[in-house]
Write a structure and sequence with these properties.
The protein is α/β, with parallel strands linked by helices. The protein is built from 9 helices and 8 strands. It has an 8-stranded parallel sheet. α5 links the parallel β4 and β5. The structure holds pyridoxal-5'-phosphate. Pyridoxal-5'-phosphate binds next to β8 and α9.
């Protein structure tokens, strides 16, 4: 199946980059996909999934988590502060920490819970007005706020390069920003560019359509 093909391509990209096997996690982005496709991937033994909406993720995965052991969910889409509590219950990682108001509310919620998901700060490397994320020039100050003032453990950075551009410079920039700030995790690479991202140090690739098929043609 497509999953096995993606795994083989990831392994080849890691080897080509001189990185150990298994050095990048595969997040299967199941948003909007029909349940039969998701079940096929579960049946193949995969357990790490990405969703971009809290409510849809909750509706889909609550029953599936009773059926299959070991499912882990990552939020890869925008997080509204009114969904924060549910997001913290459902997701082991949040890839979309993208603004100060969210960081403030997240810090309060994390303190109340006594546990924190793995956190990625989303960086708008292309400075696209319609896209979420902290601008590269504002990142150091945002990280200082999160890690200092708010005491939030930040694991790494995430980006979605502009659709029409060569993604390589964006991945390289994210890697530089992470290194400069002592961050080990890099969430980058999707169906069309995950091999490029792995060559640039991606630790988490987020792959949807190349695993499940086209989201529009169902
Ligand atoms: C949908 C989505 C993906 C997966 O996209 P594909 O091109 O289908 O692999 C990855 N990351 C984010 C943030 C997404 O919203």
């Amino acid at each position: 199946m497509a999953l096995a093909d993606i795994r083989a391509r990831m392994a080849a990209a890691l080897a080509a980059a001189g990185r150990p096997a298994g050095d990048a996690a595969l997040i299967a982005v199941s948003k909007v996909q029909p349940e039969a496709r998701v079940r096929a991937v579960l049946g193949a033994g995969h357990r790490l999934f990405g969703e971009n909406r809290v409510q849809e993720a909750e509706a889909r995965w609550t029953p599936l988590m009773e059926e299959y052991a070991g499912i882990r969910l990552h939020l890869v889409g925008p997080l509204q502060t009114n969904k924060l509590g549910r997001a913290l219950e459902l997701f082991e990682a949040i890839h979309s920490l993208d603004r100060e108001s969210l960081a403030n509310k997240l810090a309060a919620a994390v303190q109340a819970r006594g546990s924190c998901p793995m956190l990625f700060v989303q960086v708008n490397t292309g400075a696209e007005p319609q896209k979420a994320g902290v601008l590269p020039e504002a990142l150091d100050a945002f990280l200082a706020l999160c890690r200092g003032t708010l005491d939030l453990p930040i694991a790494g950075l995430m980006c979605i390069p502009p659709a029409e551009e060569d993604p390589a410079p964006h991945f390289a920039q994210l890697g530089d920003l992470a290194a400069r700030n002592g961050l080990a995790q890099l969430s980058m690479g999707m169906s069309g560019d995950f091999e490029v991202a792995i060559a640039r140090g991606a630790t988490h690739v987020r792959i949807g359509s190349a695993i499940f098929g086209d989201r529009t043609a169902t």
